[in-house]
TrEMBL record:
The lineage of its organism: Eukaryota, Sar, Rhizaria, Cercozoa, Chlorarachniophyceae. This is Glycosyl hydrolase family 13 catalytic domain-containing protein. It comes from the Eukaryota. One of its GO terms (biological process) is carbohydrate metabolic process. Pfam families: Alpha-amylase.
């Protein structure tokens, strides 16, 4: 039964994998791009009340959000960049502000905002 389940799941895995590859830009598409890498938590907050929530302890979250980043897209493009690479967006273990201590790959890191905030960032970035 376990082997049958694996056989049934394998085509689904490959179908999903191929669908992601098909949507990706080609290497040639990226040759003319200038990418700005952003550590979301450290880049920009969405309001001044949220500034420096880490209180100088840089091992904690400092308040950067998807909305804060969205508000700075013109600043980034003004420096000549036409693509952004943001830190991982998934839920983290403890104070994993950098995004590389994933605890749930299906949930958004609520320190950065909501799924709607992320979708708004993506939509706005694609429109620029």
């Amino acid at each position: 039964m376990r082997a049958l389940r694996k056989i049934m799941i394998l085509p689904l895995f490959w179908l999903l994998h191929i669908s992601f590859i098909c949507q990706a830009a080609s290497p040639d598409d990226w040759k003319s791009r200038s990418i700005y890498q952003v550590l979301t938590d450290r880049f920009a907050t969405d309001n001044s009340a949220n500034d420096d929530t880490c209180g100088g302890d840089l091992s904690k979250y400092c308040g950067g959000t998807f909305k804060g980043l969205e508000n700075k897209l013109d600043y980034i493009s003004g420096m000549g960049f036409d693509a952004i690479w943001i830190s991982p967006v998934v839920k983290q273990i403890g104070d994993g502000y950098h995004g590389y201590w994933a605890s749930d790959l299906t949930a958004i890191n609520d320190h950065f905002g909501s799924m709607e905030d992320l979708q708004s960032l993506v939509k706005t970035a694609h429109s620029k």
